[in-house]
Write a structure and sequence with these properties.
The protein is globular. Strands 5-6-7-8 form a four-stranded antiparallel beta sheet, with no helix packed on it. A three-stranded antiparallel beta sheet has the order 4-3-9, with no helix packed on it. It has a two-stranded antiparallel sheet with strand order 1-2. It contains ten helices and nine strands. The termini are far apart. It is of the alpha+beta class.
Length: about 375
Amino acid sequence: MMIAKKPIYFLAVLAIVFSSFTAFAGGGETSSKGGQINTPEGIKGYIKHHLADSHDFALYSYTNEAGERKHVGFPLPVIVWTSKGLKVFMSSAFHHNDDGHVIVDKGDVKLVKIHSKIYELNEEATEVTFDEHHHATNAHKVLDFSITKSVFGMLLAGFLMLLGFGSLAKGYKKGAIPTGFGRVLEPLVLYVRDEIARPNIGEKHYRKFMGFLLTVFFFIWILNLLGLTPLGFNVTGQIAVTVCLALFTFFIVQFSGNKDYWKHIFWMPGVPVPMKIILAPIEVLGMFTKPFSLLIRLFANMTAGHFVVMSLIALMITLKNQFGAVGSTGMSLVLALFISVIEILVAFLQAFIFTMLSSLFIGMAVEEHDHH
């Protein structure tokens, strides 16, 4: 059994790293040598591109014998609201162009993509013009409701959660012990209940918030794990996503707070009146710093993890002159493999921390104080 499990686990992690190496060597930016990334500027651009959201999946790119640049991946739906109404088409219409040179003509409106943002050209404009700061002067942004890579990742995570918890629910209908994949989920559900919800919220109120805590925990964990795949997901590294997750916690805390919670914020019992006046603004500020710490912690840690992995992979290029192709690639492989294994732990750890702190803030809001 040990002989079977360890090689499979090692090969799975190794496949992730090698897939990332392949994508790094052939995707994103282009150069004069077959489109491979071989300059510091190209590396920085590729890492920036990897961390940002995009309208399609570009797995890797290559230059064919005719000198044409080919991209391997798949497009996603573009849904935008323009001055002429709603426009829907596939992102392949832009042909992976991100500098505004490819114009998508939808009859009564012309659209371009610049730095992953979609712009509408002004009337009678035939191409995009830029100012000295490379800002479009004859185009404006449209309302973008597209299914981007991050949106697709969230939909995929939600779908996997529906499948997993649906299997768990069916297992409980058949008996007290779930069967199939439900056996994998049950220990994790019990862990969130017994190690996170109960100690922080209390026996009286924890059941009310279990749905939210389980959703947040598995949603973040699955997204973090998807971020380790060659598909290049960085959903929890998008500040908009972490802000929304933190806002859910913020509103649940405020709407669940009892009179003791609000009293300890605006008029603390047992404290002299002058100190109450001084402490009240600090307590109000603390209401907002708590969710802010949640969103920044998750965003910064996941973004830093992706940045470090991509930077270590880039060592095979940046250190090629010093250590040779074999030495730089071997060093890059070992370090990237080590960090990738650590990132598997970080994926769980960040989901645990966000859920733990959310339950702690909720517990502070619903706690009943004995003033006697």
